[in-house]
Specification:
Blueprint (H helix, E strand, L loop, with lengths): L12 H12 L2 H4 L2 H8 L3 H25 L6 H8 L2 H33 L5 H18 L1 H31 L22 H16 L4 H4 L7 H30 L11 H8 L3 H35 L17 H10 L1 H9 L5 H32 L13 H17 L3 H30 L1
Helix pairs in contact: 1-8, 1-11, 1-13, 3-9, 4-9, 4-11, 4-16, 4-17, 5-6, 5-16, 6-7, 6-13, 6-15, 6-16, 6-18, 7-8, 7-13, 7-14, 7-15, 8-11, 8-13, 9-17, 12-13, 13-14, 16-17, 16-18
Length: 450
């Protein structure tokens, strides 16, 4: 069988919906929300709302470009075409790096969740098993990946809905009547116990939770009928995410005092254990474990596709641009999966200490991707205007909202500097950009020699 020249368009709308939700509803909500609750208290709901609105506008910018030109590699391709070679090189490799970090954070979370049932099980063993299984699934074909992610995402979404319903039942059937049964939201220091400053810092942290939603753009090269499926996926997924995040936080904050949510387990598991629903705690631990595996699955998928897109532009080694007979970038999967073995080693040597560091560096990398999308969209619309071109899925409030999003992302960097566990990631930002620049210069020099 000769090697195919294109990836297979095997992802349907239901796959795209769940892939986007699966990428964005994971460890950031189920485990990372611990730190955001500590920063903002009940106002964490507002932090998720603000972050979600900004991400929606950025997704609409990406969606306009993806519908106009549905290609594998997504915004790296658009950055090269409409902005320049270095921005394209930077955005592609930065996105890959971002999802490598996300992969590591999710593998770390898998180890943490397994210890809920098996306290003596080393984190690195659980991480290694997850890595092997998910890599095998991704190697078969894109349709199997889509089906696996569909059901994994469906489990955690159904669980979130059930959790909200169960939480409301506990609140409404308890000894207190409305509004006293929701009093935890405004007692213990008020709705903004740490003031607007705490809210701003929490908003910077919650942005990690939204990392992965741009995966819709990555799937454009393998989506059936992208003109219809991509706009539908983007428009439908954002309000669901806001419902899940804001609604879930509202129930959690009402059920238990925000200042008693610890860091030994997911807030979801801890709160339901504390109110006496033991079975629910076990079920929720299974769900948060599923969520972490789901996001790791999406990370391996997107990383291999980004490497394929970079190789097709001659910005990555040529062997990464080869597809299997089933249209799968097998070598890209092995490279992306293999490098996350570093996480297995880190969990072996430093168990329980690396999640927050991985989350903060991944957040910085994600903001670079979002910044690139926002600026590239400005260049894209300028190109369309100059060439009299009309697009099918226009981003609203252009160009005003582009500049608002840029200012917001700069603000995220500033407030990350105010958080001790995250400031190192901001200091590493110029170092990382320099590494990318040197890599780009090395590539250009080799091309000139060739």
């Amino acid at each position: 069988m000769s090697e195919p020249t294109k990836m297979k368009r095997g992802l349907k709308n239901r796959h795209l919906q769940m892939i986007a939700l699966g990428g964005a509803i994971g460890t950031g909500l189920f485990y990372g929300s611990t730190s955001t609750i500590a920063l903002a208290g009940p106002a964490v709901m507002l932090a998720y709302l603000l972050g979600g609105i900004v991400i929606f506008f950025i997704m609409r910018m990406l969606g306009e470009m993806a519908v106009d030109e549905p290609v594998s590699g997504s915004f790296s391709h658009y950055a090269t075409k409409y902005w320049g070679k270095f921005p394209g090189f930077l955005s592609g490799w930065n996105y890959w790096f971002n999802y490598v970090l996300v992969s590591m954070a999710e593998l770390t979370a898998v180890g943490i969740y397994m210890q809920f049932w098996y306290p003596d099980l080393p984190q690195w063993i659980a991480a290694l098993i997850c890595l092997v299984v998910i890599t095998a699934i991704n190697l078969i074909n894109v349709k199997l990946y889509g089906e696996f992610e569909f059901w994994m995402a469906l489990i955690k979404i159904a669980a979130i809905v059930l959790m909200i319903v169960l939480g409301l039942y506990l609140l409404l059937s308890g000894p207190l009547s409305f509004p006293d049964n929701f009093r935890n939201i405004w007692v213990n220091g008020g709705f903004l116990p740490n003031g607007w400053w705490g809210l701003a810092m929490a908003t910077a942290v919650v942005m990690f939770s939204f990392g992965g939603i741009e995966l819709i753009g990555i799937t454009a090269g393998e989506a059936e009928n992208p003109d219809k499926t991509i706009p539908r996926a983007i428009n439908q997924v954002i309000w669901r995410i806001l419902l899940f995040y804001v609604g879930t936080m509202a129930v959690l904050m009402a059920l238990w005092p925000w200042n008693k949510v610890g860091v030994d387990a997911s807030p979801f598991v801890q709160i339901f254990s504390n109110v006496g629903v033991v079975a629910a705690a076990h079920i929720l631990n299974f769900v948060v474990l599923t969520a972490a595996v789901s996001v790791y699955n999406s990370a391996i998928y997107s990383n291999s596709r980004m490497l394929y897109g970079l190789a097709s532009k001659d910005e990555a080694p040529e062997f990464l641009g080869h597809l299997s007979g089933r249209g799968v970038p097998v070598k890209g999967i092995f490279v992306s999966s293999g490098i996350t073995l570093i996480c297995v080693a880190l969990n072996y040597f430093f168990p329980g200490k690396i999640f927050m560091y991985l989350m903060s560096i991944a957040t910085i990398a994600a903001t670079i991707s979002w910044m690139t999308i926002t600026i590239t969209h400005l260049k894209f619309r300028k190109y369309c205007k100059e060439h009299g071109k009309e697009t099918k899925f226009k981003s609203p409030l252009y160009p005003f909202i582009n500049y608002v999003c840029i200012a917001f992302l700069v603000g995220v960097w500033y407030f990350m500097l105010q958080i001790p566990d995250m400031e190192l990631a901001v200091y590493l930002l110029p170092v990382w950009l320099l590494v990318l620049w040197l890599g780009y210069c090395y590539r250009e020099r080799n091309h000139q020699k060739g």
